[in-house]
Amino acid sequence: MFVVAQISDLHFDGTTDRRKRVAAVMDYLNGRCGGPRNIDALLVTGDIADEGLPEEYREAVEALSTDIPTLMTLGNHDDRTAFNSVVYDMESCSEPVNSALRLDGLLILALDSSISGRSDGYLARGTLDWARTQIAEADPGTAVLVGFHHPALPIGIPFIDDRCQLDPALLAEFIDEHPTIVGTVSGHAHTPAATMFAGRPHIVAPGVASTLNLPFEGTDVVNTVQRPGVAFHLIDDGALTTHFRGIPS
Ligand SMILES: [Fe+2]
Ligand SMILES: [Fe+2]
């Protein structure tokens, strides 16, 4: 069985509050959970920075330091050029931040659904073709977990449902081609949620920085009493089971 921890929507902005929430989650993963002894990978699904500033990514690099193999991709609050410069030392690079982690029996893909200057998202044909190549190069039958920032479908929070993926049909086509995909996981909505997309589980990670209200939970956008959260994805025998945790900060 594989364990993939997913965190999302860290929104580093230079404040102590944001740093404390991320630190609590990372302490939980590295300490109580045993870090790489028990967790095979850490997947960070975007909105790492609040304004896409280099100094926010420098905060993130320091705070996310861990021995757990880590993949990161971007959200609508991120900036590809700043991220690539700080994290990968690539100057003037605005290419999508896609990455893959191959384990013996599991392939994890982190795909960039951000669109510069917009809050909705899009998994471009080039990104999906890159993902196709990664799957083709994996051993036959390898389970695949696909992560990105924007949910592929509305999930019942109007503020977010207006800002999902622009062309989910392209993603559905990609999923249909690959029966080894155990599910897709996203962020952006700042709420732990589970649904189905293209016949597979589609899991939305809780937000680390904050949680958003459902329409019946109150009139404020942000639910201020919720803890930062993490999703633990267990992948075994081609099936995905997800557990959620709220971490005191
Ligand atoms: Fe966010
Ligand atoms: Fe977002």
Automatic annotation (TrEMBL):
UniProt keyword terms in alphabetical order: Hydrolase, Iron, Metal-binding
UniProt cross-references to Pfam families, sorted A to Z: Metallophos (PF00149)
InterPro entries from the UniProt entry: Calcineurin-like_PHP, CNP_phosphodiesterase-III, Metallo-depent_PP-like
Key word Membrane present: no
Ranges in a coiled coil: none
Keyword Nucleus belongs to the record: no
Family that this chain belongs to: Belongs to the cyclic nucleotide phosphodiesterase class-III family.
Protein name: Metallophosphoesterase
